[in-house]
Amino acid sequence: MKRLLLQLILASVLFLTAFFMANFAFAELPIPNAPVHGENAVKVLQIATVYDDFDDANINSTLWDIDNPAGIFSQSGGLLNADGPPNLTYADLRSKYIFRGDVEFVLDYRDFQSTATIFTESCPQIWLQVEHSSGNFIYIFRGLCTGGHTFASNGKMNDLSLGGVWSSASSGSGLLKISRTGSTITTYYNEGTGWVAHGTFTGVFTGDVIVQIAVYTGDNGTFHVSSDWITYEGQLIKARWPEVYDSVLGESKENDIKVLRSFRDKVLVKKPDGERYVRQLYRDSFEVALILLLNPELRVLTAEVLEPLLPRIQSVIKGEEMILYETEIEKIKALLDDFAEEATPQLRGLIWQVKRDLDRERFLKQFGIILEK
């Protein structure tokens, strides 16, 4: 679940553990609790809690992991906006909070526009998605596809499509909703005349989920859509890395976290390979934390691998070399293999990269790590 050690320490053995912890040693976040407010494109028919009202000058990085490399997302005038060109471009916001049990999410969208005429890659769209740490997910989107303006609902369970549901859309503004009760998830849309049930998926994931807002700008033409708010009903859980620190680092966590952060900031990100690993690990932080929390034995193994390395990591921070023995490398690889058994395909790919780099003496040496066989 989220690949812990961190690749470079991760790359350096701390790989999964140390690295992730270095990157995610953050304080607990405040829980959003603002009431629904404002003039909405469509009236919300039930009381809910606003997760984000998009009123800040910038996208709230306390609430979201932001993947917006081309800058198509922006925030102004109390709205989250997405615009294209550029074409052939995706962007998404993934909640940093986790939701448990029966949950419901509603996303406002407005002024959906697209002049696309080519649909080879995908439909220009805005979508709402719930995602489980296993990589399973369910979504509903509002888009423009070959047959015209449309709603579509689908998902994946164990890498298998659940079977898409399609309906025509007639308005550029409305609401998207995903509701989970037990092991059943239902998607809905509302164009101002009430909720319409769209897709119903039974026997799906019941564990903790995150919520995602994403857009695709289309293969060609112009694209625009805005959102005023996203709400949730259900149990919201605070960021979970503090729990991981407690269980893995114990009483020494404050000092250990400082060491790991220093290693990240003074050593890892100073090199292109290290910066790349940092970026990838941030992407997978939710999964890694959840894997650790759900696997007590893995937490113990992580602590056993990490403990003897911390004093030597401090030497690297001071500009000295750190010797890493082949027996330690093998323990790190074994730990990564244990993580891989619980990981999604994306995380397993990252673990494979780390294991490969742990065998490359030149790769390790750039971070002050000397491999001794």
Outline of the structure:
By secondary structure, this protein is an alpha+beta fold. It has helices at 17-23, 241-249, 253-266, 272-283, 285-294, 296-306, 310-317, 326-342, 345-358, 361-365, and strands at residues 5-10, 15-16, 34-35, 49-52, 64-67, 73-76, 79-84, 90-95, 98-114, 125-132, 137-145, 148-157, 160-161, 165-168, 174-181, 184-190, 196-201, 209-216, 223-227, 230-237, 322-325, 369-372. Strand 11 and strand 12 form a beta hairpin.
How would you portray this structure in words?
Helix content is 29%, strand content 36%. With 373 residues, the protein is α+β, with helices and mostly antiparallel strands. It folds into 2 domains: 5-26 and 240-372, no CATH class; 34-237, Jelly Rolls. The strands form 4 sheets. Strands 3, 4, 6, 7, 9, 15, 16, 17, 19 and 20 form a 10-stranded antiparallel β-sheet that branches. Strands 5, 8, 10, 11, 12, 13, 14 and 18 form an 8-stranded antiparallel β-sheet that branches. A two-stranded antiparallel sheet has the order 1-2. Helix 6 (296-306) packs antiparallel against helix 8 and helix 8 (326-342) runs antiparallel to helix 9. The chain is elongated.
